Amino acid sequence: MNSKLLQKTAEGGITLTTMEMKQLLFKSIDEIGRLYREKEVSPVEVTKATLERLHELEPKLNAFVTVLEDQALAQAAEAEETFVKGDQTGSLYGIPVSLKDIFMTTGIRTSMGSRILKDYVPAEDAFVYKALKEAGAVIIGKNNMLEFAYGSIHPDYGQCNNPWNVNRTAGGSSTGSGASVAAGIGFASIGTDTGGSIRVPASFCGIVGMKPTYDTVSRQGLFPLSQSLDHVGPLTRTVRDNAIVLEQISSLSFDYDSLFSGNIQGIKVGVIRSLTESISNPEVYALTAAAIQKLKDLGAEVLEVDIPGIETIEQSALPIVLAEAAANHKEWYADRENDYASATYANLKEGYKVTAVSYVEALEVKKQFTEAVNQVLNQVDVLVCPTMPYPATEQDPSFENGNIDVSQRTIPFNYTGHPALSVSSGNTPSENLPAGLQIIGRYHDEKTVYRTADAFQRATGGYKLPPL
């Protein structure tokens, strides 16, 4: 592709400096697409820069299990030819992205972050992998993750670190997805979320993570944790980018001009009182309060709401997660104990203790709680609360022995299946670590969630680059 950048280089002009190339990697998907169409830069140049960034930061971040360098460069070259011809392309065409190493990829290792499947090469493609390829995205690699997405890192793979502070975790279970996007290694990643596994890394890394309405994105070719609570969704740096990706991997479509106008005048925002007032970290509490005030300043009508039982509902969800996960691991549970991370195996062991009665009772509570959330959403357009009660911790919080307080504010909406998004509410003054604001919507109303989150993100200065 005879991009203007390459043309200047050939004429002896000045090429992009390292700083300029880094700035390019943090542009939005729309901006990169416009540069492609105007031949200011080529997909090959952007992909090479992305891979250079990856190699610069690995293994410091430890965000990737598999890097698909040759495949990515071939996909980028194909995209370059398309732009040279001037053919019409979609919004993800030639855009470097990654995906969590839990999605099946034909001929490419799919480890699930486990020793058990460390050499597993599937013979099928997951739906989202096919959708990304069909959209013309450049797939640069598969991201590190907590083992089987079940709350613990396997020591064979090691913790994925946070680009805001590499001595802190990126948050799980979509650890590498959150870290890579935040660090400018690709413009999006696809993760999974059973109890907060997209929204937790989004909160810890200061990016946008969307868990759409249950079954909005096909789970075909995803290794399941809990079929009743598993969701698939995108992690990006901006809200608009997130909608672009979700549109490509689902049947949803968005009117971008009206949706991202910055106008949320009159939108009714329900602040979940108990999940907000119970935040003990004063800096996260202050950021949340400031975020709520900003929504008011933007013209939203802010109300306080209560959802009975939401503070402890994760305990009702636990029998479902434990039992379904145990069933999904029956092939290995009896003979491969030493190959699991100890905390993962402990969770599986607890799953085999769940009785049929407890499981059925949990499903009944699920129906009742879902109705309670729906009733509140009949009175407001969206709900908000902090995504996490604290910024990134040094190590991934373990779910071992039922310790799932980390998901108190996220798993309720896996339980109900409502769309829920995390957007950065700002950084803590003391350690400059991101915190997240969670925005929850009615079923299949991702548009209002996106509209609210985008107006907030733009009003608070947009995505902020980490120091790494």
What does this structure look like?
Residues 45-449 form the Amidase domain. InterPro entries: Amidase, Amidase_dom, AS_sf. This is Amidase. By secondary structure, the chain is of the alpha/beta class. The protein has one domain (4-459): Amidase signature (AS) domain (Amidase signature (AS) enzymes, Alpha-Beta Complex). The chain is 39% helix and 15% strand. It has 17 helices and 13 strands. The strands form two sheets. An eleven-stranded mixed sheet has the order 1-3-2-6-8-7-12-13-11-9-10, sandwiched between helices. Strand 4 and strand 5 (165-169) form a beta hairpin. Helix 2 crosses helix 4 (43-57), helix 4 runs antiparallel to helix 5 and helix 7 (175-182) packs parallel to helix 8 (199-205). It is globular and about 65 Å long. Residues 8-14 and 400-404 have low confidence and may be disordered.
List keywords for this structure.
468 residues; alpha/beta; Amidase signature (AS) enzymes; eleven-stranded mixed sheet; 17 helices
Give me the secondary-structure topology:
Blueprint: H1 4-10, H2 18-25, H3 29-37, H4 43-57, E1 64-67, H5 69-85, E2 96-100, H6 127-134, E3 138-143, E4 161-162, E5 165-169, H7 175-182, E6 188-193, H8 199-205, E7 208-211, E8 231-236, H9 239-249, H10 256-259, E9 268-272, H11 273-277, H12 282-297, E10 301-305, H13 313-328, H14 342-351, H15 356-377, E11 382-386, H16 412-416, E12 420-427, E13 434-441, H17 446-459
Parallel strand pairs: 2-3, 2-6, 9-10, 9-11
Antiparallel strand pairs: 1-3, 4-5, 6-8, 7-8, 7-12, 11-13, 12-13
Helix pairs in contact: 2-4, 4-5, 7-8, 13-14, 13-15
